[in-house]
Write a structure and sequence with these properties.
There is one protein chain. This protein is an alpha/beta fold. The protein has helices at residues 3-48, 54-70, 74-89, 104-120, 167-181, 273-284, 317-344, 350-353, 363-373, 383-392, 410-415, 427-434, 478-487, and strands spanning 140-145, 151-157, 186-192, 197-203, 221-226, 236-240, 243-247, 249-253, 263-267, 289-294, 310-314, 356-361, 394-401, 418-422, 440-441, 450-455, 461-464. An eight-stranded mixed beta sheet has the order 11-10-12-13-9-14-16-17, with helices on both faces. A five-stranded antiparallel beta sheet has the order 1-2-4-3-15. Strands 5-8 form a two-stranded antiparallel ribbon. The protein starts with a helix and ends in a 51-residue tail after the last helix.
Length: 538
């Protein structure tokens, strides 16, 4: 007999013996599972019984066992009943197979396809990409989901007749996609008009734990905040969570060679426009002088009062008009001094080249008050610093509410080419604030300081402003207040430690006006006592 026949016959015998053995052992295994079930039930009942009732329970159980023992054939009947109940409890009926879990792509992409169909379907198209009985696989070419089952990337096609060049049509599609994919995240929409493709990418959240600190930047460079890695080709070291990390900054370059010498920032209420002003002030103080106008009058910038390099902090209309009139005359004086030095071939005086910053927080509040009292609009006094500030080393920063955008004068809008918008805003508001359509759909709920920035003619990028709280606000966290206090210029050694800042003269140098400069009426900014009373920072 061949060897393979012996092997096959041996396998059949072994298989048959195994089947018989399993048939013989199956009842024992069923009874064993039932006994384990009974033992577990008894243990649970014993654990659930209060301690004061365990004694009577044991006595009653022992009495029952003695009664069963004394009955004729009691032990046999008790054993048969136990085995029967164990066999019943240990049975394992075959459970029906669980239905397979639905595919995440089929559920979510199917819902998105159905939501886009009313906007992208064509009734007269022969082979439409979107129709009410179609499948998402005909229009969606690629997609990705994250570990939590949320849509992270999607590429889809749309008909050629769709008006993808109209902002309103794009906004409708972006709103539908964000509603189906989740409004808690930001999405970037890349419209490829040539090939009728739309690429959607879910953006990772920006870090919110970067506090105010000395940033690695050249004089004249202001770090507005931080953005995505693809938003800039530069990274700087920052202290984040007690460690040094590399983060990509949004850098605004100022000075005589800057193409965007002035900044205009809009923001929703409570989303950090005043923090942005404070952050810029702390970065500009080591190298320049400041004039601060607090149009809202809330005292958000009282920490800058009487600081070295801060000429004045005004909250009233009268003080703001006087400060801005002085700034206009100072701009004129600087221009005359620089022209005289240029014609004479000498170095310009130091007081004409030291940067001067005009920081205005909510100036439209003062504009309305000026119109009501029949006084000049503070925004009109900014025309000379805005138009000639780059040559005179004067930089203007204006921050206001989004709702006040229509009250900003055309001169201010035309001369401020660096733009920032903070907080959740609509497509039209973002376009009006930044001067260009935003290809990112904002999240429904954004943290404080989150927004977008556009420098000149560049592409808008995401922005997270460093946490720069008011150090006089008792409700702000102590570590954030200490970080701002450490950056403020030294004022009094009895109440504050000296900050590590470049040396500056106690008073800014003043040069006599040039002979060719016209004699202008000088405005005296000196006051008997400051408009904002400051208190020592503990």
């Amino acid at each position: 007999m061949p060897l393979n026949r012996h092997l096959s016959k041996g396998r059949e015998i072994a298989r048959t013996a195994g089947d018989h053995a399993s048939d013989m052992v199956a009842p024992l295994s069923v009874i064993g599972r039932g006994l384990r079930h009974h033992a577990g039930w008894a243990k649970e009942r014993w654990d659930a019984t209060p301690k004061d009732r365990r004694g009577p329970t044991l006595f009653l159980t022992a009495s029952m066992l003695v009664g069963v023992y004394l009955l004729p054939h009691g032990l046999l009947f008790a054993l048969i009943a136990l085995m029967a109940s164990a066999a019943w409890a240990g049975r394992t009926p075959k459970a029906p197979p669980a239905p397979p879990a639905p595919d995440v792509a089929d559920v979510k992409l199917g819902a998105l396809y159905a939501a886009l169909t009313p906007y992208l379907c064509g009734p007269e198209e022969a082979n439409p990409l979107y129709h009410y009985e179609g499948s998402y696989k005909s229009a969606f070419s690629s997609w990705e989901f994250d570990d939590e089952g949320r849509l992270s990337r999607l590429e889809l096609g749309y008909p050629a007749y769709f008006t993808d060049t109209e902002p309103a049509a794009r906004a409708r599609i972006e709103q539908v996609v964000q509603g189906k994919a989740g409004r808690a995240r930001e999405y970037r929409f890349d419209w490829d008009e040539e090939s009728n493709r739309l690429r959607i990418t879910a953006l990772a959240p920006l870090p919110t734990d970067i506090v105010a600190q000395r940033f690695v930047a050249a004089p004249g460079e202001i770090v507005l905040g931080f953005t995505d890695e693809d938003g800039t080709a530069r990274t700087i070291p920052v202290t984040q969570g007690g460690a040094i990390t590399q983060q990509p900054p949004v850098v605004w370059r100022t000075g005589p060679r800057s193409a965007e010498p002035h900044l205009l920032a809009f923001g929703a209420t409570g989303y950090g426009t005043s923090s942005l002003i404070r952050s810029i002030a702390l970065q500009a103080l080591p190298y320049g002088d400041l004039v601060v106008i607090d149009g809202a009058g809330t005292g958000e910038h009282a920490c800058l009062v009487n600081r070295p390099g801060v000429h004045t902090v005004e909250t009233s209309l009268r003080g703001a008009l006087a400060a801005l009139e002085w700034a206009a005359q100072e701009t004129d004086r600087r221009l005359a001094a620089l022209n005289a030095a240029r014609h004479a071939g000498t170095a310009p005086p130091e007081d004409a080249t030291r940067p001067l910053w005009l920081l205005l927080d909510h100036p439209t509040e003062l504009s309305e008050l000026a119109h009501a009292e029949g006084r000049p609009d503070p925004q009109d006094l900014l025309e000379l610093p805005l138009r000639h500030g780059r040559a005179a080393r004067v930089t203007v920063v204006i921050a206001d509410a989004v709702e006040a955008g229509d009250r900003i004068t055309p001169t201010v809008r035309a001369t401020t080419r660096a733009r920032v918008v903070l907080g959740p805003t609509g497509p039209e508001e973002s376009r009006a604030a930044l001067g260009a359509p935003l290809d990112i759909a904002p999240a429904a709920h954004a943290p404080v300081g989150r927004g977008y920035a556009r420098i000149g003619n560049g592409t808008p990028v995401r922005l997270q402003v460093p946490a720069t709280v008011d150090p006089l606000d008792d409700e702000a966290p102590a570590p954030l207040r200490d970080a701002v206090i450490a950056l403020l210029p030294h004022r009094d050694t009895r109440t504050e430690a000296a900050a590590d800042l470049p040396l500056r003269p106690e008073h800014p140098p003043v040069a006599p006006p040039a002979e060719s400069a016209p004699q202008a009426h000088l405005v005296d900014l000196a006051k008997g006592e400051p408009m904002i009373r400051s208190r020592p920072i503990s």
